[in-house]
Amino acid sequence: MRPLAELLDADDTGAAEVRRLLAHAVNPVEVIRSDRPRGERSLLRVQVPVGTVLGAVAYRLGGLVFDHGWLRLLGSGAPRAPRDLAGWNGPTSVPRLPGATLVADDVAGGFFAVNGTAFPGPAGGVHYFAADDREWEDLEIDYRGLLEWACNGDLEGFYADTRWPDWELEMRGLGMDQGLDFEPELSVEAAARARRRVGIDALWGRVPR
Prior knowledge:
Layout: H1 4-7, H2 13-23, E1 29-33, H3 36-46, H4 53-60, E2 61-66, E3 71-74, H5 85-89, E4 100-106, E5 111-115, E6 126-130, E7 135-138, H6 143-152, H7 155-158, E8 178-183, E9 194-199, H8 200-204
Antiparallel strand pairs: 1-2, 2-3, 3-4, 4-5, 5-6, 6-7, 8-9
Helix pairs in contact: 2-4, 3-4
């Protein structure tokens, strides 16, 4: 495990790239600030230099909320963002997802993970667990690509089978540690499903391991 001093290098290119992507974002985004002690804990957990995009988000931001609250990228946490990269991924000795780092999720129970050794394919690639087909898939992007997609990608199209008319109204007041439980399951037409708020742990509990 690399010490904090090794991760806190003088390279600011990660932060500059994060600022650039957020400044030109097409999709609605809320930037949640954090503090240095939280940032140091998250940086130690993800074990990447602060000069990378993931390291910059882990160290400098409490979290990022996209598209009215539908998509959440985890950072170092804050009162507005009670889940953080360090706590959500668990200790390195007993990780929540061995061999990968969970970095983002959506309110429908989809989870994004940066690969280490958990999945086939290169380290650093982002894999997505889709709640409807209940499988991990390789998105063939890295974390920077995930942030760029969150900022400018076709989120409406990606989630078209999950959303319903005026879905944005139900995002109001939904916490970053919550998601939506659908009844019946997601294979049924979106508008016909009942929905209730649940803790994100309840949705994570459905991910096969």
